[in-house]
Design brief:
With 201 residues, the chain is an alpha+beta fold. It contains three helices and nine strands. It has a three-stranded antiparallel sheet, with no helix packed on it. Strand 6 and strand 7 form a beta hairpin. The model has no long low-confidence stretch (mean pLDDT 83).
Amino acid sequence: MASIPDSQDAVDTGRRAALVTTSVVGGVGCLAVAAPFVASLTPSERAKAAGAPVQVDLSGIAPGAMKTVEWRGKPVWILRRTPEMIAAVKKTDGLVADPESKRTAYPTPTYARNETRSIKPDYLIVVGICTHLGCSPVGPLAAGTNPTLGDNMGFLCPCHGSTFDLAGRVFKDKPAPDNLEVPPHKYLSDTLVLVGDDSQA
C-alpha cells in the first residue's frame, strides 16, 4: 500500500522550489544590472567627443600619407612626412608669419615649438581647422600644384585663401591669424601616439 506523503515533506519541496526560482531570477537581475555598470567604465562616444584622449596606431601610415582622427569633435591630422617634406618645411622659414610658434591665440605646446612643430620630425600632428573662420583646409598639396602655394608644399584653406606649410605654419599676409593648432599628445611607443593627453607618467 502506497504511503501518503508527509505534509512537512510537501512544504519543504515547495520551499526549495521557491528558493531555487528566486535565486535564478536574482542572479539574472544582478547580471542585468552589472552589464551596464561595467560598460559604463569604458569611455562612451560622447565622452570621447568631449575630450577623452584618442590612441592612434601609426604603423599603417605610409611615408607621405595622412590619417585623420577625431578628438573633441575636431579633425586631427597625422601626416607622416618624407625627407623631402621635412626639407620643404626648412625652405619656408622666411615665408611664414610665425616661424617659431610664438603667437598665443592657439598656444603651441613647448615640445612642438620648433621648426617642424613636432616631437618627431617625421610626424606632424595638428588640428585640421583653419584659424581664420574654422574652415577645413585641403592638402597636403605638392609644390607647383596650386597657384596660391606656388613652389611650396602645404595646405590651402579654400574659403579665404589662407595657406600653411607642412608644419602647419601660416604663410605671411594671409587671413588666418595663427598657425594650425597642435593638440596635446605624447608617444606611447614608436608606433602609438595618444592625442589629447601630454601628461608625464
